[in-house]
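User: Sequence for Cytochrome c oxidase subunit 2 below. Tokens please.
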Amino acid sequence: MQTVRVKYKDHQKYICYEGQLTFKSFLDCVAKKFDIPTLDLKVFDVTKTEVDEEVFEFLIQKQDLGVLEICLPQDPNDSLSSSASASVSSYSDVDSDDTIILQRSPASTTKEEDSRLAKMIEDILKNKPGGERIMNEYARTKSLTDARRRDMVKMLVAQMTSYHGTSPSRRVKEEYAKGITSLFPNLADPRSKFGFEHYYNAEDGSGYLAWRLKFVQKGASEGQKEDPASVTNRWSKS
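Assistant: Structure tokens for Cytochrome c oxidase subunit 2:
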């Protein structure tokens, strides 16, 4: 059983829910545990951006709670740094009045960050020949064929290297990877920690984006243009 660990000021407790986890049920349980009013309860994400009901439901649908903070804004003694933080925990035996079933969060980005990165990838594809076909195929099938995926990766790496060179930073590569799974949620890998590692995994430098970058770097170092036939053969094995 998954639980949510909540800290309010200097007090920390576990809270659980029965049934569907909604923004209201989350606030009701927090208020009950700490004897605080739900009316003025505020929730903030790790970037100190307020999380409202719409955003909360979006995070739950994406299985993405991350770390949340709560506070009572009318209380001058309250602050984000000393208010409540809620994070998903994996403890199974908890003394609680309620029960909740939560899944492990694959990512901790906010709705705003997801939207920004998704828009970045969408804009790139819309301005690349063949990009519309990629988005149309996903819209129709909720997936991409291997050929479309290879086309997408080549387009994105071409854009990445044109702005950041052939050795972009880890942050840039992660943003592109996150952007892909934000724009195309069904392409995320539910078995991985964050969902986008098969596009870029910083731990071992693997993933479709990393592999394509290595190919481009090799071509650049040799001063050769890419051979379309060799590209096709290489990516058909991906």
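Helices lie at 23-34, 53-61, 111-126, 131-141, 146-164, 170-183, 208-222, 228-236.
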